[in-house]
Amino acid sequence: MKTVDFYYDYGSPASYIACTQIEKLCAKYGANVVFKPFVLGAVFKTTGNSSPIVLPTKARYTMMDFTRWAKYWGVPFTLNQNFPINTILHMKLCVAVQLHHPQHFAEFNTAMFNAMWVENQNLTEPAVVAAICESVGLDANHLLMQTEQDDVRNALRGNTDEAIALGAFGAPTMMYNGEMFFGQDRLPMLELALQEG
Questions:
Q1: What is the pLDDT of residue 48?
Q2: Confidence of residue 51 (pLDDT cuts 50, 70, 90)
Q3: Average model confidence (pLDDT) for the chain?
């Protein structure tokens, strides 16, 4: 079966927009999506890349472009007033759900992305994050403890290291058939590759 590896971070608006489309796109061509949460900050640090918001003129254009892409695909998008945020804990929570509560993973993923990029919630507030966990049927305190387990930490580190080794420098990074596709704006290119097999 065709497989697309999807490396992403909740702090990335491009990851949110791509995540609203990736499963539908892959299903259209009989491909499976493997979600690989990683730490975008670590990718930036290792590769020497930086967020597009560092340069004010680029930041303004990039955010306008995200709004355009969201409109193109008919999905809601709001620039979070707390952006950028440190997402290490959020991505550890993601991996903990993926490994230990897979039945809640899709809903948790959607809830976290929506909280950040639709509902303008402050994900730096522990109570906000706890409420998101509880809203999808997860015990926030128990999940928080699971984020400190070796399997969770190793999986997140492994995804991040793997993405860097493959040439990733930002999010989302999608890998299919040995090719890398970066950004929500490369989904049409990924579709062409899926069409070709």
A1: 83
A2: confident
A3: 96
Which structural domain, as residue segments, surrounds residue 178? 2-196
Contact 84, 53 (CB under 8 A): yes
How many domains does one find in the chain? 1
Count CB neighbours of 180 within 10 A: 17
Record the tokens describing residue 142, joined without a space: 């128990």
Structural contact between residues 5 and 175, judged by C-beta atoms closer than 8 angstroms: yes
Read off the pLDDT of residues 66-79 as tens digits, 9 standing for 90 and up: 999 999 999 999 99
The pLDDT of residue 55 is above 90:
no
Say which CATH number the domain at 82 has: 3.40.30.10
How far apart are alpha carbons 9 and 14 in whole angstroms? Answer: 9
C-alpha–C-alpha distance, residues 165 and 132, integer Å: 32
